[in-house]
Write a structure and sequence with these properties.
The protein contains eleven helices and 15 strands. The protein is α+β, with helices and mostly antiparallel strands. Strands 1, 2, 3, 4, 5, 6, 7, 8 and 9 form a nine-stranded mixed β-sheet that branches. Strands 13-12-11-14-10-15 form a six-stranded mixed β-sheet.
Length: 406
């Protein structure tokens, strides 16, 4: 089974660039100790853009997440997003919401737009109040530029920036879709538990953008897991400002599926990048499930395997302990033919009809040295497929999270 990104499509992945009409910037305001690391940024559209979002399901939803959700739900439009790292503004009581609204107002004043066109995103340490003088200083330093500094201004324990851009032709016009995100730990999404931003210059029918985002998040960001922990802050926000000049995109447009394929490719690549950058990780793990009774079953099984600490630890140890994979499958309520389930690891058969395939241990162990491990499961229960991504579990994961505050 091939990854979505490997299928031939009518879009092109291009070097990262902003779509028409978008500007951004990032600065070091002083939230982080290292002056070389940016800690505040923003993203701006020259015209109000359609906006949609998906949000963490953690009951302790952070103030900026709540505020952005309320703002988008009010008019389904945004013109700017302001972001900070280092401090999450989560579990900070009434003051936290006041501070989030202050960030919103300061940004609106600087851009000369109304506050209800500004979204707010924060990430970092939970339980600490925002130092608003530092936040105000950072916002005052931001400019409307063509750089990509904002993509590094949201990072926490991430090892690198996560960006991608794609282009597709719609009605004779070139439409660009660009995305960036952060995420390395506390990754176990249900409606997108990380910070992700996807912007496009496509002209899209009113009300359609939320449907597109929700559908595509389900098969991308919601199918990754690093450590099984759902964060308090995180969200995916998408904007479409229409400046590409294409005919209005609807579900009946000839190029609708081409746009969806390009949009899915952007989200899928970002999701995999988060999984590969899991805290302390050394390997990206992709699980493909085929011949499931339903798509939901296939998604459950694939995510159960990448989420199993025992499977993750075995992959780190380069141990082809297929019993852990079988156990992870069996813990779900998916329909499984328990007498005829088969498993492959990097195209080498591990399990044949629920029995050991008598594989060569040396060859298998050598395969497990790869940076990407692909597991394929045949449930022999139908025709549906599913896919999920994760990473191995290493000593460094414990080290990073044992000293996060210090």
């Amino acid at each position: 089974m091939q990854s979505i990104l490997k299928k031939e499509q009518k879009y092109q992945i291009i070097p990262f660039t902003w779509p028409k009409g978008y500007k951004s910037d990032g600065v070091h305001a002083g939230l982080r100790k290292n002056p070389q690391k940016k800690d505040m940024g923003w993203l701006y559209s020259k015209v109000p853009a359609q906006a949609a979002g998906t949000y963490t399901t953690n009951q302790f939803q952070a103030a900026p997440t709540k505020l952005t959700k309320q703002t988008i739900n009010k008019s389904h439009q945004l013109q700017a997003m302001v972001m900070n790292t280092a401090i999450a503004n989560s579990v900070t009581g009434e003051q936290g919401m006041l501070d989030a609204k202050k960030m919103q107002q300061l940004t609106a004043d600087k851009l000369d737009i109304t506050p209800d066109l500004v979204g707010v995103a924060s990430t970092g340490l939970i339980g600490e109040p925002l130092p608003m003088k530092t936040i105000a200083k950072g916002i005052s330093q931001l400019e409307l530029l063509d750089n990509d500094y904002v993509t590094s201004a949201i990072l926490t324990t991430d090892k690198h920036q996560k960006t991608i851009a794609a282009q597709v032709e719609i009605g004779g016009k070139t439409v660009t879709i660009s995305g960036f995100c952060k995420g390395s730990g506390m990754i176990h999404p249900k409606m997108a538990t990380m910070l992700g931003f996807v912007v496009t210059d496509a002209n899209i029918q009113d009300g359609l953008l939320q449907d597109i985002l929700s559908q595509q998040v389900d098969s991308t960001f919601n199918q990754i897991t690093v450590d099984g922990d759902t964060s308090t802050n995180d969200m995916v926000v998408t904007l479409a400002n229409g400046l590409a000049g294409n005919p209005e995109l609807t579900t009946q447009s000839p190029e609708y599926e081409d746009f969806i394929s390009a949009y899915n490719a952007v989200l899928s690549e970002l999701a995999q990048d988060i999984a590969a950058d899991g805290e302390g990780s050394t390997k990206l793990v992709e699980v493909n499930v085929e011949n499931a009774a339903t798509h939901d079953d296939a998604q459950k099984v694939s995510k159960a395997i990448v989420g199993s600490n025992l499977v993750k630890a075995a992959i780190f140890g380069e141990d082809a302990n297929w019993g852990r994979i079988i156990a992870a499958i069996g813990q779900t309520n998916a329909k499984v033919d328990i007498e005829h389930t088969s498993v492959w690891l990097n195209d080498l058969e591990l399990v044949d009809n629920s029995s050991s395939a008598n594989f060569d241990e040396i060859t298998m162990k050598e395969s497990l040295k790869d940076n990407k491990i692909t597991i394929l499961v045949d449930l022999n229960s139908g025709t549906a497929t599913g896919q999920a991504w994760g990473c191995d579990l290493t000593y460094n994961y414990v080290r990073i999270n044992a000293t996060y505050r210090s």
